[in-house]
Write a structure and sequence with these properties.
The chain is of the alpha+beta class. Helices cover about 20% and strands about 35% of the residues. The chain contains three helices and seven strands; from the N terminus they run βααββββββα.
Length: about 140
């Protein structure tokens, strides 16, 4: 079963740009809201990451803007974990809540960094592997 999360949102006035559409930079924040909801589902949000000794910086961000987001438009932000073994890759979609039309899609890639040594880990840390067990089918390490 894929690990997913959804956030419902209405575009506020303060997110608009001078031409009265949602400013493109806010989409990154919207992705972050969905990513946070996704990680909360497995009890591995920022405080748990920190306490486990890992930071997870974003090393790649992609956004495809298909349709503008408008003032007071009701939206769904969906996040789906698509890779986890050597890095976290999370796919995002922003859809109109009424029509379900996809307005934006994208993804982020994050890597585990040992907070003590500041070194990147190129395998899934055991703590994340444990958090994902109920959601994903995989062969545990011997």
């Amino acid at each position: 079963m894929p690990l997913t999360a959804r956030v419902d949102w209405t575009v506020p006035f303060h997110d608009l740009d001078p031409v009265e559409i949602c400013w493109h930079g806010h989409y990154v924040r919207y992705f972050e809201l969905a990513r946070t909801a996704l990680m909360q589902r497995i009890d591995y949000d920022y405080p748990q990451m920190r306490d486990s000794g890992y930071a997870w910086p974003v090393i790649e961000l992609f956004i495809r803007y298909a349709q503008p987001l408008l003032y007071q438009q009701r939206l769904h932000f969906d996040a789906r974990l698509v890779e986890w073994e050597n890095r976290l890759k999370i796919a995002y979609e922003i859809r109109d809540a009424q029509t379900q039309k996809r307005l934006t899609r994208g993804h982020t890639v994050q890597v585990a960094v040992d907070m003590r040594t500041r070194e990147m880990r190129f395998v899934c840390p055991d703590i994340l592997r444990e958090k994902l067990k109920p959601y994903l089918c995989f062969n545990p390490r011997p």
